[in-house]
Amino acid sequence: MRREPRCDLGPAAIGRITGDDGSNSCWHRWALAWCPKCIRADLASHGELYERAIWRLGSCVVCPEHNVPLEDRCCRCPFEDRCHFSCSGGFLKLACNTCRRPEGPEPRRMPSWWDDESAGAFGTRITPSLNQLIGKLQNDLQAALTGARPSRSWGLLLSAKGLVTAVRHVTFCLIMATTVRCEPRIILPVMMPGEVLVPGAPEPITPAALSTRAAYGALAISAAALRSLEGGGETHMWDADRGKSPLNISSFLAWLPADIRRQLKSWSTGWEHAAGQALQAAIAAVDGVR
Asked: What is the pTM of this model?
């Protein structure tokens, strides 16, 4: 009998996030993602695998059971293409779109960014403690997407809407600052000098629009920046443009280009009052140093 994976959200709650009303459809991950340890455990125990519903959520970047980042690329060939589920001999397998080789129970990797197991997107460094912090954020974020109040404060944000909005804004700033590749379905706005965009225009952009590696970086920076906004949180490091430094709200804001920082400041007026005031003060402190 199969052992169900641990997950803080049941099928009904996940269904509300990716459900029929379309209100949270922007959080639905179109590309296939998976936990490498779950895949290997399935194959070793059952000879086949099955997809966890939570892997389809853009708010999930760390496996709730194994505390490792999700993957979305083949690690067995130099193409690093995406994978698909296929049936072989009556068993469900995960195979590369290019090399067609299925994932095996033993970890086998070609030279890639995954070889440096600490290398994350946007300069983040993957560590067990950062995975745990991201896990806390994704649990609260996933609950918030169902309308439930987060179990903890993130940057003085206490409401479901406030947390979802803040993560979307941080993700948008990262995308615009780095021009990281998004899903082809996403149309990014063109920012003109001095222009301030309307939130959500032309469409809501969430970590689901990114590769799992980039989404991991977006959740990591969101978690560390928001926790430090209220003067707390663990110390995590990242490799910003000026070298290795603590990952917090000040280093994140200093890393952002001035026009993106100005955009975030304009959006902060729509945040919950305490959180918006704290963010504006942090931006003023960074701008005053420059």
From this structure: 0.84
